[in-house]
Write a structure and sequence with these properties.
Structural class: alpha+beta
Distance between the termini: 59 Å
Radius of gyration: 20 Å
Order of helices and strands: HEEEEHHHEEHEHH
Strand content: 15-25%
Number of helices: 7
Number of strands: 7
């Protein structure tokens, strides 16, 4: 079955657009439709809700509330789960009415979870409010902190190894 990126993009854009009330359109081009919330995160940047983008091999649909809501992530239907890449991304090559209906329902649930957590309210969100919403959605903040620390330490080890290798390379080339 041939791919139809323009039709898939148009339908996925429409799904996201139907749930955009009260959000801000960050990008609206023939290959990118991105929604952000009016809330500002602790990093002083808007909190993203979702986007649809045309890429080289697929049309991607990102639903960022999946990052902050483990219960929502666990509710993804198996048929849709097969299209999931990474934590928030679903890939499509052509329109699929059945999958798009499931994605529409998931997007509605995502919007509702963001509304409950206060992520659709304009203005700054304190880190405590984000953590509270994460815990309310079944997240374990201590496990998340351990994971982040481990990833940070692994990154530091990798950077140190890279610097050692560069230093060795310079020393070998100067002989």
């Amino acid at each position: 079955m041939p791919s139809d990126f323009p039709a898939a993009f148009a339908e996925l854009r429409e799904i996201l657009r139907r749930h955009a009330d009260g959000m801000l359109v960050h990008a609206d081009t023939p290959t990118d439709f991105t929604l952000i919330t009016p809330a500002i995160g602790p990093n002083k940047k808007p909190i993203w809700f979702g986007c649809v983008q045309v890429k080289k091999t697929a049309v991607t649909y990102h639903l960022f509330p999946l990052y902050m809501n483990p219960a929502l992530d666990r509710s993804i239907p198996p048929e849709l789960l097969a299209r999931k890449q990474g934590k928030t991304c679903f890939n499509f090559q052509r329109p699929d009415p059945e999958l798009f209906a499931k994605l529409e329902a998931l997007t509605a649930d995502a919007r509702a979870s963001f509304a409950r957590g206060g992520f659709l309210t304009p203005g700054p969100l304190p880190a405590e409010q984000i953590q509270s919403a994460f815990r309310a959605a079944g997240g374990d903040t201590e496990a998340l902190a351990r994971t982040r620390k481990a990833k940070g330490q692994a990154g530091a080890r990798k950077r140190a190894a890279t610097l050692r290798n560069k230093k060795r390379g310079r020393a070998a080339s100067s002989r």
